[in-house]
Protein backbone atom coordinates (compact mmCIF):
# COMPACT_ATOMS: atom_id res chain seq x y z
CA UNK A 1 0.00 0.00 0.00
CA UNK A 2 1.08 3.56 -0.69
CA UNK A 3 -0.59 6.43 1.10
CA UNK A 4 1.88 9.18 0.26
CA UNK A 5 3.90 9.79 -2.91
CA UNK A 6 7.05 11.90 -2.86
CA UNK A 7 8.95 13.51 -5.72
CA UNK A 8 11.02 10.38 -6.35
CA UNK A 9 8.00 8.12 -6.55
CA UNK A 10 6.15 10.51 -8.86
CA UNK A 11 9.22 10.87 -11.10
CA UNK A 12 9.68 7.11 -11.39
CA UNK A 13 5.99 6.45 -12.04
CA UNK A 14 5.97 9.12 -14.75
CA UNK A 15 9.15 7.82 -16.39
CA UNK A 16 7.80 4.26 -16.33
CA UNK A 17 4.63 5.44 -18.07
CA UNK A 18 6.62 7.49 -20.56
CA UNK A 19 8.84 4.51 -21.38
CA UNK A 20 5.86 2.22 -21.96
CA UNK A 21 4.33 4.73 -24.39
CA UNK A 22 7.64 5.18 -26.25
CA UNK A 23 8.16 1.42 -26.46
CA UNK A 24 4.83 1.12 -28.26
CA UNK A 25 4.94 4.17 -30.52
CA UNK A 26 4.95 2.04 -33.69
CA UNK A 27 1.73 0.35 -32.57
CA UNK A 28 0.20 3.78 -32.00
CA UNK A 29 1.29 4.93 -35.46
CA UNK A 30 -0.36 1.86 -36.95
CA UNK A 31 -3.68 2.68 -35.25
CA UNK A 32 -4.39 5.05 -38.07
CA UNK A 33 -8.11 5.52 -38.69
CA UNK A 34 -7.76 6.95 -42.18
CA UNK A 35 -5.78 4.98 -44.79
CA UNK A 36 -3.53 7.92 -45.75
CA UNK A 37 0.16 7.95 -44.78
CA UNK A 38 -0.18 10.24 -41.76
CA UNK A 39 -0.13 7.74 -38.90
CA UNK A 40 2.00 9.81 -36.58
CA UNK A 41 0.19 9.70 -33.24
CA UNK A 42 2.84 7.45 -31.72
CA UNK A 43 5.68 9.64 -32.94
CA UNK A 44 3.97 12.81 -31.73
CA UNK A 45 3.04 11.48 -28.30
CA UNK A 46 6.43 9.81 -27.73
CA UNK A 47 8.37 12.93 -28.68
CA UNK A 48 6.10 15.07 -26.51
CA UNK A 49 6.51 12.91 -23.42
CA UNK A 50 10.21 12.32 -24.15
CA UNK A 51 10.80 16.05 -23.84
CA UNK A 52 9.39 15.89 -20.31
CA UNK A 53 11.24 12.67 -19.45
CA UNK A 54 14.56 14.19 -20.45
CA UNK A 55 13.91 17.16 -18.21
CA UNK A 56 13.12 14.92 -15.24
CA UNK A 57 16.25 12.85 -15.82
CA UNK A 58 18.45 15.93 -16.16
CA UNK A 59 17.31 17.71 -12.99
CA UNK A 60 16.86 17.01 -9.29
CA UNK A 61 13.39 18.20 -8.34
CA UNK A 62 12.54 17.94 -4.65
CA UNK A 63 8.74 18.07 -4.52
CA UNK A 64 5.79 16.65 -6.41
CA UNK A 65 4.89 20.23 -7.34
CA UNK A 66 8.23 20.80 -9.07
CA UNK A 67 8.21 17.42 -10.79
CA UNK A 68 4.77 17.93 -12.31
CA UNK A 69 5.49 21.56 -13.16
CA UNK A 70 8.60 20.46 -15.07
CA UNK A 71 6.62 17.75 -16.88
CA UNK A 72 3.96 20.30 -17.88
CA UNK A 73 6.45 22.90 -19.06
CA UNK A 74 8.72 20.54 -21.01
CA UNK A 75 5.85 18.64 -22.63
CA UNK A 76 4.24 21.90 -23.74
CA UNK A 77 7.41 22.98 -25.53
CA UNK A 78 7.95 19.54 -26.99
CA UNK A 79 4.29 19.10 -27.98
CA UNK A 80 3.76 17.80 -31.52
CA UNK A 81 0.46 17.22 -33.24
CA UNK A 82 -2.99 17.35 -31.68
CA UNK A 83 -2.36 14.27 -29.56
CA UNK A 84 0.85 15.74 -28.16
CA UNK A 85 -0.77 19.09 -27.37
CA UNK A 86 -3.72 17.42 -25.63
CA UNK A 87 -1.32 15.27 -23.59
CA UNK A 88 0.66 18.36 -22.58
CA UNK A 89 -2.56 20.03 -21.45
CA UNK A 90 -3.43 17.01 -19.30
CA UNK A 91 -0.05 17.40 -17.60
CA UNK A 92 -0.56 21.15 -17.27
CA UNK A 93 -3.86 20.68 -15.46
CA UNK A 94 -2.33 18.05 -13.21
CA UNK A 95 0.52 20.39 -12.28
CA UNK A 96 -1.94 23.07 -11.15
CA UNK A 97 -3.51 20.69 -8.66
CA UNK A 98 -0.11 19.92 -7.07
CA UNK A 99 0.97 23.53 -6.56
CA UNK A 100 2.41 24.00 -3.09
CA UNK A 101 2.72 20.27 -2.33
CA UNK A 102 5.90 18.47 -1.35
CA UNK A 103 4.15 15.09 -1.28
CA UNK A 104 0.75 13.88 -2.53
CA UNK A 105 -1.86 11.58 -1.00
CA UNK A 106 -4.57 9.55 -2.74
CA UNK A 107 -7.00 12.47 -2.84
CA UNK A 108 -4.34 14.69 -4.40
CA UNK A 109 -3.60 12.08 -7.07
CA UNK A 110 -7.25 11.49 -7.96
CA UNK A 111 -8.05 15.19 -8.13
CA UNK A 112 -4.83 15.69 -10.09
CA UNK A 113 -6.24 13.38 -12.81
CA UNK A 114 -9.51 15.30 -12.74
CA UNK A 115 -7.80 18.69 -13.15
CA UNK A 116 -5.75 17.32 -16.04
CA UNK A 117 -8.88 16.22 -17.88
CA UNK A 118 -10.56 19.59 -17.32
CA UNK A 119 -7.54 21.41 -18.79
CA UNK A 120 -7.45 19.12 -21.83
CA UNK A 121 -11.17 19.56 -22.57
CA UNK A 122 -10.77 23.32 -22.26
CA UNK A 123 -7.95 23.28 -24.84
CA UNK A 124 -10.05 21.53 -27.51
CA UNK A 125 -12.67 23.61 -29.29
CA UNK A 126 -14.92 20.68 -30.22
CA UNK A 127 -14.27 17.71 -27.90
CA UNK A 128 -15.30 14.37 -29.38
CA UNK A 129 -16.35 11.18 -27.64
CA UNK A 130 -14.30 8.11 -28.47
CA UNK A 131 -10.96 9.95 -28.30
CA UNK A 132 -8.15 10.45 -25.81
CA UNK A 133 -10.39 12.97 -24.06
CA UNK A 134 -13.14 10.52 -23.19
CA UNK A 135 -10.58 7.88 -22.16
CA UNK A 136 -8.91 10.41 -19.85
CA UNK A 137 -12.26 11.51 -18.43
CA UNK A 138 -13.39 7.97 -17.66
CA UNK A 139 -10.04 7.18 -16.02
CA UNK A 140 -10.25 10.33 -13.88
CA UNK A 141 -13.86 9.63 -12.86
CA UNK A 142 -12.84 6.14 -11.72
CA UNK A 143 -9.97 7.58 -9.69
CA UNK A 144 -12.33 9.98 -7.91
CA UNK A 145 -14.88 7.20 -7.28
CA UNK A 146 -12.19 4.96 -5.79
CA UNK A 147 -11.61 7.51 -3.02
CA UNK A 148 -14.85 6.30 -1.41
CA UNK A 149 -13.27 2.93 -0.61
CA UNK A 150 -9.51 3.46 -0.38
CA UNK A 151 -6.75 5.89 0.48
CA UNK A 152 -4.13 3.76 -1.30
CA UNK A 153 -2.51 5.55 -4.25
CA UNK A 154 -1.82 2.22 -5.96
CA UNK A 155 -5.53 1.40 -5.88
CA UNK A 156 -6.41 4.85 -7.21
CA UNK A 157 -4.06 4.45 -10.20
CA UNK A 158 -5.26 0.87 -10.72
CA UNK A 159 -8.88 2.04 -10.85
CA UNK A 160 -7.95 4.77 -13.34
CA UNK A 161 -6.01 2.30 -15.50
CA UNK A 162 -8.77 -0.30 -15.61
CA UNK A 163 -11.38 2.36 -16.43
CA UNK A 164 -9.08 3.76 -19.11
CA UNK A 165 -8.67 0.32 -20.68
CA UNK A 166 -12.43 -0.24 -20.67
CA UNK A 167 -13.08 3.22 -22.10
CA UNK A 168 -10.51 2.59 -24.82
CA UNK A 169 -12.27 -0.63 -25.79
CA UNK A 170 -15.51 1.36 -26.22
CA UNK A 171 -14.02 3.98 -28.56
CA UNK A 172 -14.97 2.08 -31.77
CA UNK A 173 -18.60 2.16 -30.65
CA UNK A 174 -18.43 5.93 -30.18
CA UNK A 175 -16.62 6.81 -33.42
CA UNK A 176 -17.82 5.08 -36.61
CA UNK A 177 -14.46 5.81 -38.27
CA UNK A 178 -12.71 3.67 -35.67
CA UNK A 179 -15.19 0.84 -36.06
CA UNK A 180 -14.86 0.88 -39.84
CA UNK A 181 -11.08 0.68 -39.59
CA UNK A 182 -11.22 -2.00 -36.89
CA UNK A 183 -9.03 -0.05 -34.45
CA UNK A 184 -9.27 1.75 -31.11
CA UNK A 185 -8.40 5.44 -30.74
CA UNK A 186 -4.64 5.89 -30.99
CA UNK A 187 -4.42 8.85 -28.60
CA UNK A 188 -6.51 7.01 -26.03
CA UNK A 189 -4.27 3.98 -26.40
CA UNK A 190 -1.24 6.17 -25.77
CA UNK A 191 -2.77 7.49 -22.56
CA UNK A 192 -3.56 3.93 -21.42
CA UNK A 193 0.08 2.96 -22.04
CA UNK A 194 1.16 5.80 -19.72
CA UNK A 195 -1.25 4.65 -17.00
CA UNK A 196 -0.18 1.01 -17.38
CA UNK A 197 3.50 1.92 -17.16
CA UNK A 198 2.95 4.05 -14.06
CA UNK A 199 0.87 1.31 -12.42
CA UNK A 200 3.54 -1.29 -13.16
CA UNK A 201 6.07 0.75 -11.22
CA UNK A 202 3.68 1.35 -8.31
CA UNK A 203 2.83 -2.37 -8.07
CA UNK A 204 6.32 -3.82 -8.47
CA UNK A 205 8.75 -1.04 -7.63
CA UNK A 206 10.39 -1.60 -11.03
CA UNK A 207 10.18 0.91 -13.86
CA UNK A 208 9.35 -0.13 -17.40
CA UNK A 209 12.66 0.04 -19.23
CA UNK A 210 13.00 2.05 -22.42
CA UNK A 211 13.84 -0.35 -25.24
CA UNK A 212 13.49 2.01 -28.19
CA UNK A 213 16.85 3.65 -28.88
CA UNK A 214 15.29 5.74 -31.63
CA UNK A 215 13.14 7.81 -29.25
CA UNK A 216 14.40 11.36 -29.22
CA UNK A 217 13.08 14.87 -29.30
CA UNK A 218 14.72 18.12 -30.28
CA UNK A 219 13.51 20.81 -27.92
CA UNK A 220 16.47 23.10 -28.29
CA UNK A 221 16.74 26.16 -30.46
CA UNK A 222 18.17 25.41 -33.89
CA UNK A 223 21.86 26.31 -34.18
CA UNK A 224 22.79 28.81 -36.85
CA UNK A 225 25.78 28.44 -39.10
CA UNK A 226 28.13 31.32 -38.41
CA UNK A 227 30.33 32.97 -40.98
CA UNK A 228 33.20 35.41 -40.82
CA UNK A 229 30.84 38.40 -40.74
CA UNK A 230 28.65 37.18 -37.87
CA UNK A 231 27.90 39.99 -35.44
CA UNK A 232 27.20 38.01 -32.26
CA UNK A 233 29.53 35.06 -31.78
CA UNK A 234 28.37 33.10 -28.74
CA UNK A 235 25.18 31.04 -28.78
CA UNK A 236 24.26 31.11 -25.09
CA UNK A 237 21.57 28.86 -23.60
CA UNK A 238 20.60 27.96 -20.03
CA UNK A 239 17.72 27.52 -17.61
CA UNK A 240 17.16 29.62 -14.49
CA UNK A 241 15.59 28.08 -11.39
CA UNK A 242 13.97 31.09 -9.78
CA UNK A 243 14.93 32.01 -6.23
CA UNK A 244 12.53 33.13 -3.50
CA UNK A 245 13.41 36.79 -4.06
CA UNK A 246 14.04 36.78 -7.79
CA UNK A 247 14.68 39.88 -9.83
CA UNK A 248 12.08 40.70 -12.49
CA UNK A 249 12.27 38.47 -15.59
CA UNK A 250 10.92 41.36 -17.68
CA UNK A 251 13.74 43.59 -16.42
CA UNK A 252 16.27 40.83 -17.20
CA UNK A 253 14.89 40.50 -20.72
CA UNK A 254 15.12 44.24 -21.28
CA UNK A 255 18.71 44.39 -19.97
CA UNK A 256 20.08 41.66 -22.22
CA UNK A 257 18.03 42.47 -25.34
CA UNK A 258 20.54 44.97 -26.72
CA UNK A 259 23.46 42.63 -26.02
CA UNK A 260 22.63 40.23 -28.82
CA UNK A 261 20.07 38.83 -31.22
CA UNK A 262 17.90 35.71 -31.70
CA UNK A 263 16.82 36.19 -28.09
CA UNK A 264 14.26 33.89 -26.48
CA UNK A 265 13.33 34.36 -22.82
CA UNK A 266 10.44 32.17 -21.69
CA UNK A 267 9.13 32.67 -18.16
CA UNK A 268 7.31 29.53 -17.04
CA UNK A 269 6.44 29.54 -13.34
CA UNK A 270 9.61 28.45 -11.47
CA UNK A 271 11.86 28.13 -14.51
CA UNK A 272 13.07 30.64 -17.10
CA UNK A 273 14.42 29.39 -20.43
CA UNK A 274 17.05 31.66 -22.02
CA UNK A 275 18.62 31.64 -25.48
CA UNK A 276 20.59 34.50 -27.01
CA UNK A 277 23.40 35.11 -29.50
CA UNK A 278 25.78 37.55 -27.83
CA UNK A 279 29.37 38.73 -27.59
CA UNK A 280 29.01 39.08 -23.81
CA UNK A 281 27.80 35.77 -22.34
CA UNK A 282 29.33 36.79 -19.02
CA UNK A 283 27.04 39.83 -18.79
CA UNK A 284 23.99 37.71 -19.63
CA UNK A 285 24.93 35.14 -16.98
CA UNK A 286 25.55 37.81 -14.33
CA UNK A 287 22.12 39.31 -14.96
CA UNK A 288 20.51 35.85 -14.91
CA UNK A 289 22.05 35.08 -11.51
CA UNK A 290 19.92 37.88 -10.06
CA UNK A 291 16.88 35.71 -10.81
CA UNK A 292 18.13 32.40 -9.49
CA UNK A 293 20.35 29.34 -9.93
CA UNK A 294 21.56 28.51 -13.44
CA UNK A 295 21.46 25.00 -14.88
CA UNK A 296 22.09 23.38 -18.29
CA UNK A 297 24.47 26.17 -19.30
CA UNK A 298 25.65 25.84 -22.89
CA UNK A 299 27.83 28.39 -24.71
CA UNK A 300 28.96 27.71 -28.29
CA UNK A 301 31.27 29.77 -30.47
CA UNK A 302 29.27 29.85 -33.69
CA UNK A 303 32.29 30.67 -35.86
CA UNK A 304 33.39 27.09 -35.35
CA UNK A 305 30.06 25.43 -36.02
CA UNK A 306 29.65 23.81 -39.42
CA UNK A 307 26.35 21.98 -39.41
CA UNK A 308 25.43 21.40 -43.06
CA UNK A 309 21.71 21.31 -42.39
CA UNK A 310 21.48 24.59 -40.51
CA UNK A 311 20.48 27.87 -42.10
CA UNK A 312 22.61 31.02 -42.18
CA UNK A 313 22.75 33.15 -39.08
CA UNK A 314 19.89 35.51 -38.39
CA UNK A 315 20.87 39.11 -37.78
CA UNK A 316 17.35 40.41 -37.40
CA UNK A 317 18.35 42.96 -34.80
CA UNK A 318 20.28 44.88 -37.47
CA UNK A 319 17.05 45.61 -39.33
CA UNK A 320 14.23 47.80 -38.00
CA UNK A 321 11.20 45.90 -36.73
CA UNK A 322 8.54 45.52 -39.37
CA UNK A 323 4.83 45.43 -38.72
CA UNK A 324 3.95 41.91 -39.94
CA UNK A 325 6.00 38.76 -40.49
CA UNK A 326 5.03 35.26 -41.63
CA UNK A 327 6.02 31.74 -40.54
CA UNK A 328 4.79 28.77 -42.58
CA UNK A 329 5.09 25.00 -42.20
CA UNK A 330 6.03 23.03 -45.30
CA UNK A 331 7.85 19.87 -46.37
CA UNK A 332 9.71 19.79 -49.67
CA UNK A 333 12.35 22.07 -51.18
CA UNK A 334 9.99 23.38 -53.83
CA UNK A 335 7.25 24.32 -51.38
CA UNK A 336 9.79 25.97 -49.07
CA UNK A 337 11.11 28.06 -51.97
CA UNK A 338 7.59 29.07 -53.01
CA UNK A 339 6.79 30.38 -49.54
CA UNK A 340 10.11 32.22 -49.25
CA UNK A 341 9.65 33.78 -52.70
CA UNK A 342 6.22 35.01 -51.58
CA UNK A 343 7.73 36.87 -48.65
CA UNK A 344 7.30 34.34 -45.85
CA UNK A 345 10.06 35.10 -43.34
CA UNK A 346 10.58 31.61 -41.92
CA UNK A 347 9.65 28.19 -43.25
CA UNK A 348 9.41 25.48 -40.59
CA UNK A 349 10.13 22.02 -41.95
CA UNK A 350 7.22 19.69 -41.33
CA UNK A 351 3.87 18.36 -42.44
CA UNK A 352 2.31 14.91 -42.55
CA UNK A 353 4.12 12.38 -40.30
CA UNK A 354 6.64 15.02 -39.15
CA UNK A 355 4.77 17.64 -37.17
CA UNK A 356 6.99 20.38 -35.74
CA UNK A 357 6.87 20.91 -31.99
CA UNK A 358 5.54 24.00 -30.25
CA UNK A 359 9.16 24.86 -29.46
CA UNK A 360 10.13 24.57 -33.16
CA UNK A 361 7.35 27.00 -34.08
CA UNK A 362 8.23 29.32 -31.19
CA UNK A 363 11.86 29.42 -32.33
CA UNK A 364 10.80 30.44 -35.82
CA UNK A 365 8.47 33.13 -34.47
CA UNK A 366 11.15 34.61 -32.21
CA UNK A 367 13.59 34.80 -35.13
CA UNK A 368 11.21 37.06 -37.08
CA UNK A 369 11.75 40.75 -36.38
CA UNK A 370 8.12 41.85 -36.54
CA UNK A 371 5.42 43.10 -34.20
CA UNK A 372 2.80 40.71 -35.58
CA UNK A 373 3.67 37.19 -36.75
CA UNK A 374 1.15 35.24 -38.80
CA UNK A 375 1.59 31.47 -38.53
CA UNK A 376 0.43 29.24 -41.39
CA UNK A 377 0.34 25.65 -40.01
CA UNK A 378 -0.82 24.19 -43.36
CA UNK A 379 -1.91 20.96 -41.67
CA UNK A 380 -4.84 20.26 -39.36
CA UNK A 381 -2.60 18.33 -36.96
CA UNK A 382 -0.26 21.31 -36.44
CA UNK A 383 -2.84 24.01 -35.66
CA UNK A 384 -3.07 23.20 -31.94
CA UNK A 385 0.71 23.19 -31.48
CA UNK A 386 0.89 26.56 -33.26
CA UNK A 387 -1.75 28.06 -30.99
CA UNK A 388 0.29 27.18 -27.90
CA UNK A 389 2.89 29.71 -29.08
CA UNK A 390 0.49 32.59 -28.39
CA UNK A 391 1.13 32.43 -24.64
CA UNK A 392 4.88 31.84 -24.94
CA UNK A 393 5.99 35.05 -26.66
CA UNK A 394 5.66 38.81 -26.33
CA UNK A 395 4.89 39.10 -30.04
CA UNK A 396 1.35 39.42 -31.34
CA UNK A 397 0.53 36.03 -32.89
CA UNK A 398 -2.16 35.26 -35.44
CA UNK A 399 -2.63 31.56 -36.19
CA UNK A 400 -4.60 31.06 -39.39
CA UNK A 401 -6.20 27.62 -39.52
CA UNK A 402 -4.72 26.58 -42.85
CA UNK A 403 -5.09 22.83 -43.33
CA UNK A 404 -3.07 22.50 -46.54
CA UNK A 405 -0.22 24.19 -48.37
CA UNK A 406 -2.52 25.72 -51.03
CA UNK A 407 -4.60 27.34 -48.27
CA UNK A 408 -1.42 28.79 -46.80
CA UNK A 409 -0.34 30.14 -50.17
CA UNK A 410 -3.81 31.64 -50.78
CA UNK A 411 -3.70 33.32 -47.37
CA UNK A 412 -0.26 34.82 -47.98
CA UNK A 413 -1.30 36.13 -51.40
CA UNK A 414 -4.37 37.77 -49.86
CA UNK A 415 -2.26 39.83 -47.45
CA UNK A 416 -2.17 43.53 -48.28
CA UNK A 417 0.29 45.70 -46.29
CA UNK A 418 -1.89 48.74 -46.98
CA UNK A 419 -4.76 47.26 -44.93
CA UNK A 420 -5.08 46.99 -41.17
CA UNK A 421 -4.24 43.73 -39.40
CA UNK A 422 -7.93 43.13 -38.69
CA UNK A 423 -8.84 43.65 -42.35
CA UNK A 424 -6.02 41.37 -43.45
CA UNK A 425 -7.07 38.55 -41.13
CA UNK A 426 -10.58 38.73 -42.59
CA UNK A 427 -9.23 38.78 -46.16
CA UNK A 428 -6.85 35.89 -45.53
CA UNK A 429 -9.58 33.78 -43.92
CA UNK A 430 -11.84 34.51 -46.90
CA UNK A 431 -9.07 33.33 -49.23
CA UNK A 432 -8.70 30.12 -47.24
CA UNK A 433 -12.45 29.47 -47.36
CA UNK A 434 -12.57 30.03 -51.12
CA UNK A 435 -9.71 27.67 -51.96
CA UNK A 436 -10.65 24.19 -53.14
CA UNK A 437 -7.81 21.85 -52.33
CA UNK A 438 -6.92 18.18 -52.41
CA UNK A 439 -4.15 15.67 -52.99
CA UNK A 440 -3.15 12.33 -54.45
CA UNK A 441 -1.44 9.75 -52.26
CA UNK A 442 -1.52 6.02 -51.46
CA UNK A 443 -3.22 3.96 -48.75
CA UNK A 444 -1.26 2.52 -45.86
CA UNK A 445 -3.97 -0.01 -44.94
CA UNK A 446 -6.92 -1.73 -46.55
CA UNK A 447 -10.05 0.42 -46.73
CA UNK A 448 -13.61 0.56 -48.02
CA UNK A 449 -14.75 3.14 -50.54
CA UNK A 450 -18.24 3.18 -52.06
CA UNK A 451 -18.95 -0.31 -50.67
CA UNK A 452 -15.84 -1.84 -52.25
CA UNK A 453 -12.73 -3.11 -50.45
CA UNK A 454 -9.31 -1.87 -51.55
CA UNK A 455 -5.88 -3.14 -50.46
CA UNK A 456 -2.89 -1.33 -49.02
CA UNK A 457 -0.89 0.86 -51.49
CA UNK A 458 -3.96 1.79 -53.54
CA UNK A 459 -3.75 5.25 -55.18
CA UNK A 460 -6.30 7.62 -53.61
CA UNK A 461 -7.51 11.12 -54.43
CA UNK A 462 -8.54 13.27 -51.47
CA UNK A 463 -10.83 16.30 -51.47
CA UNK A 464 -10.78 18.30 -48.24
CA UNK A 465 -9.28 15.31 -46.47
CA UNK A 466 -11.88 12.78 -47.66
CA UNK A 467 -11.46 10.01 -50.22
CA UNK A 468 -13.10 11.04 -53.49
CA UNK A 469 -11.34 8.98 -56.19
CA UNK A 470 -9.54 5.62 -56.27
CA UNK A 471 -7.38 4.39 -59.14
CA UNK A 472 -4.19 2.73 -60.32
CA UNK A 473 -2.41 5.79 -61.73
CA UNK A 474 -1.65 9.02 -59.86
CA UNK A 475 -2.11 11.36 -62.81
CA UNK A 476 -5.40 9.71 -63.80
CA UNK A 477 -6.66 10.11 -60.23
CA UNK A 478 -5.62 13.78 -60.26
CA UNK A 479 -7.59 14.35 -63.47
CA UNK A 480 -10.68 12.76 -61.93
CA UNK A 481 -10.34 14.99 -58.90
CA UNK A 482 -10.09 18.11 -61.03
CA UNK A 483 -13.25 17.13 -62.90
CA UNK A 484 -15.06 17.22 -59.58
CA UNK A 485 -13.54 20.56 -58.56
CA UNK A 486 -13.57 22.73 -61.69
CA UNK A 487 -16.77 24.64 -62.38
CA UNK A 488 -17.84 27.74 -64.28
CA UNK A 489 -16.39 30.03 -61.62
CA UNK A 490 -12.93 28.43 -61.69
CA UNK A 491 -10.05 30.50 -63.05
CA UNK A 492 -6.77 29.03 -61.77
CA UNK A 493 -5.53 25.48 -61.23
CA UNK A 494 -2.31 25.11 -59.24
CA UNK A 495 -0.51 21.75 -59.04
CA UNK A 496 2.43 20.95 -56.75
CA UNK A 497 4.40 17.86 -57.79
CA UNK A 498 5.73 15.46 -55.15
CA UNK A 499 9.32 14.41 -54.56
CA UNK A 500 8.94 11.17 -56.53
CA UNK A 501 8.04 13.03 -59.74
CA UNK A 502 10.96 14.06 -61.96
CA UNK A 503 11.60 17.45 -63.54
CA UNK A 504 11.17 15.82 -66.95
CA UNK A 505 7.59 14.86 -66.11
CA UNK A 506 6.64 18.42 -65.18
CA UNK A 507 6.37 19.65 -68.77
CA UNK A 508 4.31 16.63 -69.88
CA UNK A 509 1.90 17.02 -66.97
CA UNK A 510 1.56 20.75 -67.70
CA UNK A 511 0.74 20.13 -71.35
CA UNK A 512 -1.88 17.48 -70.55
CA UNK A 513 -3.68 19.67 -68.03
CA UNK A 514 -3.53 22.76 -70.26
CA UNK A 515 -5.19 20.75 -73.05
CA UNK A 516 -7.93 19.63 -70.65
CA UNK A 517 -8.53 23.18 -69.35
CA UNK A 518 -7.62 25.63 -72.15
CA UNK A 519 -9.72 28.44 -70.63
CA UNK A 520 -8.05 28.28 -67.22
CA UNK A 521 -4.60 29.27 -66.02
CA UNK A 522 -2.82 26.01 -65.20
CA UNK A 523 0.24 26.48 -62.98
CA UNK A 524 2.48 23.49 -62.24
CA UNK A 525 5.29 23.65 -59.68
CA UNK A 526 7.89 21.25 -58.31
CA UNK A 527 6.83 21.01 -54.68
CA UNK A 528 9.09 18.16 -53.63
CA UNK A 529 6.71 17.09 -50.84
CA UNK A 530 6.98 13.51 -49.57
CA UNK A 531 4.12 10.98 -49.61
CA UNK A 532 1.85 13.01 -51.92
CA UNK A 533 2.40 12.80 -55.70
CA UNK A 534 0.15 15.81 -56.24
CA UNK A 535 -1.28 18.59 -54.14
CA UNK A 536 -3.70 20.87 -56.00
CA UNK A 537 -5.86 23.92 -55.57
CA UNK A 538 -8.66 25.33 -57.71
CA UNK A 539 -9.61 28.99 -57.39
Percent of residues in β-strands? 15-25%
Total number of domains = 4
CATH class categorisation of the largest domain: Mainly Alpha
- What shape does the CA trace take? globular
The largest β sheet comes out as: 6 strands, mixed
Helix content: 40-55%
Mind telling me the C-alpha Rg? 25 Å
The first-to-last residue Cα distance is: 65 Å
The strand line-up of the biggest sheet is 15-14-11-18-16-17
- Tell me which CATH architecture of the largest domain applies here: Alpha Horseshoe
CATH fold call of the largest domain: Serine Threonine Protein Phosphatase 5, Tetratricopeptide repeat
Structural class: alpha+beta
Number of contiguous helices = 19
CATH superfamily of the largest domain: DhaL domain
* Count of β-strands: 18
Write down the overall mean pLDDT.
87
Low-confidence stretches: 212-229, 305-317
